[in-house]
Amino acid sequence: MKIRRLSSQHEDFKMQLDELLAFETTQDEQLEATVATILAEVRMRGDEAVLEYTQRFDRLPANTAASLEIPRSELCAAFEGLPADQRAALEQAAQRVTAYHQKQLQTSWSYIEEDGTQLGQQISAIERVGLYVPGGKAAYPSSVLMNALPAKVAGVGELIMVVPTPDGIRNSLVLAAAYLVGVDRVFTIGGAQAVAALAYGTATIPRVDKIVGPGNAYVATAKRRVFGVVGIDMVAGPSEILVICDGKTDPDWIAMDLFSQAEHDELAQAILLTPDAAYADAVHKSAERLLGQMPRRDIIRTALENRGALITVRDLDEACEISNRIAPEHLEISVDDPQRWLSKIKHAGAIFMGRYTSEALGDYCAGPNHVLPTSGTARFSSPLGVYDFQKRSSLIQVSQQGAQTLGAIASTLAFGEGLQAHAQSALFRKS
């Protein structure tokens, strides 16, 4: 297996790094046209269009939109029928994710000024949220937990889940997770048609206020197109992991950590930064030896050969500088004293500190959310959280005395902008 080897000391390193990080974001015109058509059809024809696309793409012989909804009794049966170890793991993960996100809950606040004017902020939950859960190449019950639980903690009134079930195959663990977290309604639809149904609403599928959850290129494109009609969490790119290691962690561990993201899809990116060139060699050898054990070996190989890299750096300070330039989705700091380096990290979706903190723990059960900014957007974006399901309204209650002072200020500025009605509106309330 050929994994790209780079050195920060090479004169062309910055250019090589840019080439490595480059992700083709040029929009596929055919894909865009297809998604635009699907959105328009669902908006105009509702359930009829959803049925047609579901029959075509997922090969479901459903005759009515109502038949696409999974009854709660089936969700309950899926949960009750889980093997004991799966049920316990799901419950424990849910408890940890809930406990973590409860720390994020924000409350309303206000204060009163000396003249009696009250200012503040009212926090309220979004009323109805749509949760997209992938169901094509793989099933992700963890995605149900990570998207639904912060919404529940925030106080979202109703959660509508959509999950594609190609050929009618339903994943019991996904359904069980939906039951456990209290999803209100579940529909067996996916793709751009599911996003359209959530955004515009049909006779059967309720219109939501925000859509969250990962999906393929069609789903991502559809979410981007309906933004403004509804809110969205983010338009996520391929999964990423960046490992900073001092060369003392078992190379098998690091190789498998790189695999853990590379196995998502062929466009995933896995990078190691280390000041020890011999250690990079050891990780490469581990990867070659371990690859044959992986059921998704072909996907891993393609991802590592096309977008992976083992990079030798001058020292750990430089590793942190390069990490900030990359702004990775997942960052592992696999060193003796990770806290020492934490203050140097400015941009990362999630930071996994220490040799025993594998990224996989964050994907499932550590507690923090696994929905993270990708493709360098950690420079300005944050993980999904309770705050994504809450809205803030400014509160302003001006006293009679306050209207005199504020009226003078506002009218002066309004006259300066040439907005006479604004100025008079403020002045009318002056005594």
Low-confidence stretches: none
What do we call the CATH topology of the largest domain?
Rossmann fold
Global mean pLDDT:
95
Instruction: Please report the first level of CATH classification, the CATH class of the largest domain.
Output: Alpha Beta
What would you call the shape?
globular
- In the CATH hierarchy, what is the architecture of the largest domain at level 2? 3-Layer(aba) Sandwich
Question: Would you give an account of this structure?
Answer:
There is one protein chain. By secondary structure, the chain is an alpha/beta fold. It has three domains: 4-23 and 237-366, Rossmann fold (3-Layer(aba) Sandwich); 29-232, 3-Layer(aba) Sandwich (Rossmann fold), CATH 3.40.50; 398-427, no CATH class. Helices cover 45% and strands 16% of the residues. The chain is built from 17 helices and 15 strands. It has helices spanning 13-21, 29-45, 47-58, 72-80, 84-102, 141-154, 172-181, 191-200, 217-226, 251-262, 277-291, 297-307, 316-326, 338-342, 359-364, 400-417, 420-427, and strands spanning 4-7, 69-70, 109-112, 118-125, 128-132, 158-162, 185-187, 210-212, 231-232, 240-245, 269-274, 309-312, 330-334, 350-353, 390-397. Strands 1-12-11-10-13-14 form a six-stranded parallel β-sheet, with helices on both faces. Strands 2-7-6-5-8-9 form a six-stranded mixed β-sheet, with helices on both faces. Strands 3-4-15 form a three-stranded antiparallel β-sheet, with no helix packed on it. β3 (109-112) and β4 form a beta hairpin. α8 (191-200) runs parallel beside α9 (217-226). The chain starts with a strand and ends with a helix. The mean pLDDT is 95.
